[in-house]
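Budget justification aside, the reviewers requested a transparent look at the raw inputs and outputs of the sequence design task funded under Objective 1. We therefore reproduce one unedited record. The lines immediately below are the structure tokens for a 154-residue chain.
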């Protein structure tokens, strides 16, 4: 009986050592292609924001209808980020187009639906709408980011 218990303990220790050794070998020497690519790729350079130019758009008042048919209002102030002076001038020249896309995107929605969105979700919604519409018009976007400066519901 003692021999059986002793052999079970030795067998268990061997299995633990073999499993640990296999895990160590896998982590240190056997890598998935994705992990190998990440390990061998050069580190990404972080974008420098020192030269960014912030171009504020005119505040927009958007009328939204609620479930009862009552008009509600949303005040939205956006700022677009340009990487250089030329892009900033293009943003200012294209401001009516940007305002129109933003107004069309939000005015077609119900008040309750827009009100339930977070600021980040509204930013994503507007960014996607701008990208989609600019691509449809074959107009390159001069901005690199969209910032929400003010968002008020009434």
């Amino acid at each position: 009986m003692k021999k059986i218990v002793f052999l079970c303990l030795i067998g268990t220790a061997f299995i633990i050592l073999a499993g640990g050794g296999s895990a160590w070998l896998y982590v240190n020497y056997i890598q998935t292609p994705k992990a190998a690519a990440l390990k061998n790729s050069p580190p990404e350079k972080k974008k420098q924001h020192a030269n960014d130019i912030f171009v504020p758009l005119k505040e927009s008042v958007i009328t939204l209808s609620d479930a009862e048919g009552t008009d509600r209002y949303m005040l939205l102030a956006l700022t677009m980020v340009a990487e250089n002076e030329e892009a900033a001038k293009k943003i200012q020249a294209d401001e009516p187009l940007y305002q129109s896309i933003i107004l069309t995107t939000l005015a077609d929605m119900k008040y309750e639906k827009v009100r339930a969105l977070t600021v980040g979700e509204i930013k994503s919604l507007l960014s996607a709408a701008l990208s989609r519409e600019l691509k449809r018009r074959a107009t390159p976007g001069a901005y690199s980011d969209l910032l929400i400066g003010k968002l008020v519901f009434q």
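Strands lie at 53-56, 60-65, 71-82, 145-153. The first strand starts at residue 53 and ends at 56. Computational costs for records of this kind are itemized in the attached budget.
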